[in-house]
Amino acid sequence: MVTQDLKKFSSPVFPFTAIVGQEEMKLALQLNVIDPKIGGVMIMGDRGTGKSTTIRAIADLLPEIEVVKDDPFNSHKSDLDLMGNEVKIAIQNDETLETEFIKIPMIDLPLGATEDRVCGTIDIEKALTEGVKAFEPGLLAKANRGLLYVDEVNLLDDHLVDILLDSAASGWNTVEREGISIRHPARFVLVGSGNPEEGELRPQLLDRFGMHAEIRTVKDPILRVKVVEERTSFDQMPMVWIENYETQQQELRTRIIDAQTLLPSVQIDYDLRVKISEVCSRLDVDGLRGDIVTNRAAKAHAAYNGRDKVTIEDIEKIITLCLRHRLRKDPLESIDSGDKVSRIFKEIFEIDD
Length: 353
Hints:
Blueprint (H helix, E strand, L loop, with lengths): L1 H7 L14 H12 L6 E5 L5 H11 L3 E4 L16 H8 L6 E4 L3 E3 L6 H5 E3 L1 H7 L4 E3 L1 H5 L3 E5 L6 H13 L1 E6 L2 E6 L3 E6 L8 H4 L4 E5 L5 H16 L1 H7 L1 H17 L7 H13 L6 H16 L7 H12 L13 H12 L5
Parallel strand pairs: 1-10, 1-11, 4-7, 7-10
Antiparallel strand pairs: 2-3, 5-6, 8-9
EC number: 6.6.1.1
GO molecular function, one term: hydrolase activity
Protein name: Mg-protoporphyrin IX chelatase
């Protein structure tokens, strides 16, 4: 009951559909929600450009999910890849499970978080004396089936970033202490943000983020005034704002749900797949992750637009997001990596400027 009351008094969230500009970041977040296997988003940009606001807004926009009641992993009632061990055992024993609907979890990872706080801990004493696996879930357990947001990810310890990326890619978290091992589902959309002035992420870590969105401070004075006015107005009358945007929010919510349903049936032609790989090859992208992510993102973009077949326009919209962070940095290169991806794409797909 207390949690229900807390939900009522939680602070209002700025509506996602009311956010002005930053189209690249908004598209990347929506596509990752449609297909979490894209592998998350790294958002790099100046301070005060609405990174955190947008990420909280997408979490608030998403529909509620059905979870097994009082389960620390937000377990799904029937999908084995999304449920903890106790729920699996209960299903095998034909026990009836009580479920409830909750908002999509949106977990903030604090900068000073320890590995135990992130992964969870095993109570060794209890395990030895009582013979039971006493597990204290961490933030990865709470983030299962939701979003995990790491602000200033470029300032986080490299080994912690590694753990997050491993879990995001595999959908599982394994904790091992003194010969005792516990594994639980940790399927989430990983969203990292950072300011390039505070240092870059190591290339091998950056490569493991599915998409990389770059955002800039709005330069147009009229647009800046609009953003300031809207934010001030929202802070003064948040409930009025939320009501005004409810129809648009619901339309987008439905569009995302429809896209998730359509996604498994979306096809991409062989010749388009060959051309995507040709772009990756010409750009000298290491490994095949770029090819895989571009294919997935193109399918998600087609589903987002209600189509079951990928077009060149779908690929054009997402290819820069998927590849710009995978290029080798050349100090003598004057062209921006995003522009380079776009140029090679147009050459191979024979698109005129």
